[in-house]
Amino acid sequence: LSLYDAACQIAQEIAEKIQERNRYQRNGESSAKLHVVIRSLLQNLREKIDQLKDLLLRAVSTHQVTQLEGDRRQNLVDDLLTRQKQLQASYKNEGPEPDTIRSSLMTGGVKRGVTNPWLLEEPEETRGLGFDDLRQQQRRIIEEQDAGLDALSSIISRQKQMGQEIGNELDEQN
Question: 14, 58, 4, 51: which is closest to 36 by C-alpha?
């Protein structure tokens, strides 16, 4: 966790240096020193993320942490990896910001007022659950839905039978 915190601090420092570099470029000043610093910080961040991946893999495979904790830590590493890719793209000045690109993928382009389902918060009932827990929850929900459909089917069958009996009674009365 201390290695993760150190990696987060490096990521924050990189973001600050990139903003400083962009400010220098707007003012027409030279930012060559910042390019070198940012490049070395990005390399350092990449190494820390690789170390985190290795440590996590080792901890999960030797059962030093539970599967749920392993999943939680994997999510943290994945978030950090995404952040590193965003910083790399910002460093290279690759067009619009990555968040804009990501949101435009799901909405068919950059539009105002369109909400992206991938940017929504995770619901409280699934927060912190591992893959196996999510599968188990989905199976339980499907079983409940199947039970509801079975009950609905029996009700409809009973109504059909009642309708046929009413039809027969009407035929007899006529």
Answer: 14
